[in-house]
Amino acid sequence: MCGIVGYVGKRNAVPVLVEGLHRLEYRGYDSAGLAVVHRGRLQITKTAGRVQDLRDKLREGVRSSVGIGHTRWATHGEPNEVNAHPHTDSSGRIAVVHNGIIENAEQLRDQLQADGVRLVTDTDTEALAHMIAAEAAQDGALEDAVRRVLRRVEGAYGLVVLDVRRPDQLVVARNGSPIVLGLGENEMFVASDVAALVRYTRQVIYLDDGEVATIRAADYQTGMTSRTPTTVEAETGDYELGPYADFMNKEIHEQPDALRRVLRGRLDDRFATARLGGINLDARQLRGIRQVKFLGCGSAYYAGQMGALLVEELARIPADAEPASEFRYRSPVVDPDTLYVAVSQSGETIDTLMAVQELKRKGGQVIGAVNVVGSAIGRECGSGVFLHAGPEVAVASTKALTNMAATFALLGLLIGRVRDLSAAGGQRIVAGLRALPEQVSRILADEEAIAAAAHRFAGAEHMFYIGRVRGWPVAREGAQKLKEISYVHAEAYQAGELKHGPLALIDGSMPSVVIVPSDDLVAKNISTIEQIRARGGRVIAVTSAGLPEDLADAVIRVPRAEPELEPILLNVPLQTLAYHMAAKLGRDIDKPRNLAKSVTVE
Ligand code: F6R
To answer: DSSP string of 121-159?
Structure first.
């Protein structure tokens, strides 16, 4: 996915931009480029290769106090050097880097050509450079010129504009594609992702949609009255692989620490409850909640399903989950006594953001469960719970999902304790939550056994993931993980539904992963395994229930936990299983084909 970085300040911009682009490489790209102002002229360097190639191409001795850089993932036009950003106008005055897609690009390009402008690239972005240059030719601030142009632009953008005649500033704009300002001491950074900034500053401001800002070394003007900077939790090491082969494996192994962080300060032993100050609801308001509804997309939706079960079990009020992408389009009935929870790692997913906006319009009560502090969904909700998983780099969500589920256990505990959950019941959950990080470490210590099972089944073209009740969202998330990173077709089914149709598909070529928590449904799950095996199907059982070794073709064990919390543990080996199947198949695990880490456009 495209990445943006920009700098204005006391340092030489060139190494700052190159370093920033290097930090954005993990998002995937096909070309890169940067523009600085050197001796009063724009100096542009581009490559159809890697950031390292760009570094090699840079002219020695180029210094500048201002510049912009970009990693491009082609949308309009081939991934070649000409189409790489930054793009400029014909006179070489304005340079632009842009993320997103301009929907009326063709019309804008036609208009420019009709006006006699010679377009040299196939991109939508080049049109912006020419249009801004034309507007900037009139007197007035660059920001005003950019605003006038953006009125004619349809689509999504994160944009940074450099004007050779105003080398003390950059103009930035956001509409649907993240832009974050990094505040330094007499220097200012801008990027599409904090990964590019954390080496220099942790004080950031996330632009809102529709916002245009001018940044200078000493200050920024966003047009909004006052903006309080956010301190980002991320550190440079979060974006480095260290001893791991890829980020997914690294993030799977970070889960014990991520869990410790999400629980820190939130377990109240004295009253056997949870502390979630950010949701801003007192005991009376919590008691008034009649239903909880989780909204999210993909894995965040499956985490919401886990959350719905946890809330129903612990708080004994109805709870369910729905894909935010459906909710926003179906004109939902919004109930004022329902607590809606918008679930999102990135905090930028457009469908979830739109669902929140729809809820707010209809007077719904919505809180966020978001990982990225300062992101759009968190800000739109205004209150909620941060997931504290740390930056998640791999496209496939692992530690964020685990922290979502743990957060929903805290929410269930909190609502439960103002209702009918006894102090003893609360203490049992508090102790169970506290045990989770170490239990996840024990699962991960067995990675080799899981890898061995993965290698045995890596030749399968299709797989079933079977679970019932607590095992059901786990099965769905497990199938999702396998599909997205290995490209093996996987389908999740409720165990009880098998014999109503899908059992017909079982044969020696269709292995099934069966989730067996240690609850009162163990016998039923064992019988499901037997039914599959009786039809020649191979089974991987993932269980905390101490099943005999010969019950399945492979048995992956997790520690026994408090029953309500077991989905959190049972999910972990499924991540590892998918990971090792994908690795065996030689997939690009961190950047699966056709997928983006955050889906900010329709
Ligand atoms: C799956 C995955 C996606 C995301 C989904 C929502 O591993 O990563 O399904 O869960 O796109 O993203 P967020 O949580 O950022 O809203």
So the answer is: SS-SHHHHHHHHHHHHTSSS-HHHHHHHHHTT--B-EEE
The candidate with the shortest Cα–Cα distance to 404, out of 575, 239, 259, 544, is 259
For residue 485, how many other CB atoms are within 10 A of its CB?
A: 28
69 neighbors 33 (Cβ within 8 angstroms): yes
Amino acid at 592: P
For domain 241-444, give the CATH number: 3.40.50.10490
What residue ranges of the chain are covered by domains with CATH 3.40.50.10490?
241-444, 446-589
The CATH 3.60.20.10 portion of the chain extends over: 3-238
SS3 21: helix
Q: If you measure from the C-alpha of residue 376 to the centroid of ligand 1, how many angstroms do you get, rounded to a whole number?
A: 15
pTM of this structure: 0.90
Q: List, for residues 566-576, the tens digit of each pLDDT value.
A: 999 999 999 99
Superfamily of domain 3-238: Aminohydrolase, N-terminal nucleophile (Ntn) domain (3.60.20.10)
Q: Which of 193, 397, 399, 579 is the best mutation target for the ligand 1 pocket, counting ligand atoms within 8 Å of the beta carbon and taking the most?
A: 397
- Among 2, 250, 293, 381, the active-site one is 2
The tokens for 221 are 């003007």
For 371, what's the count of Cα atoms within 13 Å in the CB-facing half-sphere? 27
Contact 276, 371 (CB under 8 A): no
**Ligand 1: does its nearest atom lie under 6 Å from the Cβ of 575?**
no
344 lines ligand 1 (CB under 6 A): yes
pLDDT digits (tens, 9 = 90+) for 291-346: 999 999 999 999 999 999 999 999 999 999 999 999 989 989 999 999 999 999 99
CATH topology for the 446-589 domain: Rossmann fold (3.40.50)
Question: β-pairing, 230-231 with 267-268?
Answer: unpaired
